[in-house]
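Sequence in, structure out. First:
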Amino acid sequence: MVKEGFLGGLIAGKKHLIEKIKGFARHSGPALAPFNAWVISKSLETLAVRMDRHCENALSLSQRLKRLSQIELVKYPFLPSHPQYKVAKKQMNAGGGIISFVIANGFERACIFLDQLDLVSLTAKLVDTRMIATHRTSTTIAKLSITDRRAISILPGLIRRSIGLEHVDDLYEDIEQALRLGH
């Protein structure tokens, strides 16, 4: 089943640049249907609350993951171990809703781990109300050579998680059980 999507946005910039796309925009039908506009409006009303929860969950989960022996590395900008921690604390109110961590024993172990997760959507997209996990080595950058992956700090066991709104204890327990079952 294919879900229909919609796009809402704004074009802003210098007048001479906007003039170049005005005709295209007029003829391509960028106007939202009333219901879709209402959905976006309602979503924007709760965006700050949802982002607070994403960030709280991500910080708590990243702190807990650092204590697991099966996790080699956890990357989250509000962890003191992150190389840009001081910059992140200076520039941001919270660390965001995305964390990365490296499963010990590399590629195969990361794939097994993902198969054992229950509370997760496996996809390459980012940010949803539910937890999302991506194993970039087998998805978004699968065609890159090992040398190229290492050059951009993508290790074979790297998992990227977009943290959802679920209770953080449930998210952590799901990761723990996936690590146990896949071992």
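Second:
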Amino acid sequence: MNTLFVSDIHLNSAQPDITEQFCAFLRGPARQAEKLYILGDLFEFWIGDDDPDATYAQIQTELKALTDSGVPCVVLHGNRDFLLGEKFCKRTGCQLLPDGSLIELYGQRVVLCHGDILCTDDHAYQRLRRIFRNPIIQGLLRLLPLKQRQRLAERMRQASRNHIKNSMNEIMDVNQQSVIEYMHKANVQCLVHGHTHRPAIHMHALSSTSGTRIVLGDWYEHGSVLSWSTQGYELLTLTRS
């Protein structure tokens, strides 16, 4: 048995190939797993648990089939789906965990996060993150009419595209010192995250030992999965037909 990790699937109705591949993943490899972790940005943008999008409804049905089969699924909020809430959990059987959650994985302590909190060189983004991760702001957003939230989501998507286009490539990645401080604070030697869309395994020098940072990739062109078992871990790329 293995434990699987994915992130940044960015499911949306405009890219049915992503939906098709992820559904196949949920019906196939995920059914054989001990547990599935989704580390944020499952959806391109989640405007609330009342979103009527047909693709989102399909994914919730597929996740419910997975959890009903006996495979637990844990979800972290990303920067695109920070409004995932209780109704989503009831529909899917998934469990929501906060950023920075610690898990015990085959004898090793591991800290999980979406990854955007580590991109501290991007000061404009971090200011925006603090605003939208505020529970009061999120509560106010949920009170807005659906149409208004849909318009807001589209403006935020466009603003994100412009920010990425106009920003230096370096600030879009994690800050190395922030990574080390994050791992020290969690008292772990292993960190798993997504967000940057740069799948890789990095080694970091901690105060008295070395640490491992595993970065999950996005699903825009192909799938990215971390498979972890008692035999070790492997960062996999799933081809798309």
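Remark: The two ends are 26 Å apart (CA to CA).
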